[in-house]
Design goal:
Elements lengths: L1 E7 L3 E7 L6 E8 L3 H15 L1 E8 L9 H17 L2 E6 L3 H11 L4 H24 L2
Parallel strand pairs: 1-4, 4-5
Antiparallel strand pairs: 1-2, 2-3
């Protein structure tokens, strides 16, 4: 069984999956957002295909630790995702996950167009890997 990590944005959802031992996170895909029902169904399909037992969704926090409007949207999305997939959804602080992903891609000299294609997936990997690291301590 695996754990799925999600970086949920307005236009795209980055998807990462753990290995079977739950030690490492690998990028899986980027879902282009269409409608809530289509997004939930696509995530469910990935979960079914990969035997996912738990989902970790990045929860945006302000730098001072408070939660803003976007965090409430993510909580609502997570509730609907859990109801649709019947898989437990947890939240993980995603502060700076996208910034970290951008830095890695810039250092690798990845073009702006290509960065757009993979930034959400890499952010999902960061979220999931941080969660796995905490889980395995």
């Amino acid at each position: 069984m695996r754990i799925m990590g999600l970086d949920v944005g307005e236009k795209r959802i980055g998807v990462a999956l753990s290995d079977l031992m739950k030690w490492t996170a690998q990028g899986h895909s980027v879902i282009e957002r269409k409608s809530l029902s289509e997004d939930l169904q696509k995530i469910k399909e990935i979960c079914d295909e990969n035997e996912v037992e738990e989902i970790v969704v990045g929860l945006p926090r302000n730098m001072n630790g408070t939660f803003g409007f976007k965090a409430e949207e993510i909580r609502e999305f997570s509730e609907k995702l859990e109801a649709h997939t019947k898989i437990k959804v947890k939240h993980w602080d995603e502060r700076l996950s996208t910034v970290s992903a951008q830095r890695v891609l810039l250092e690798a000299d990845v073009s702006r167009r290509k960065r757009r294609e993979v930034i959400d997936k890499l952010a999902a990997v960061n979220i999931l890997q941080n969660y796995l690291d905490r889980l395995n301590r």
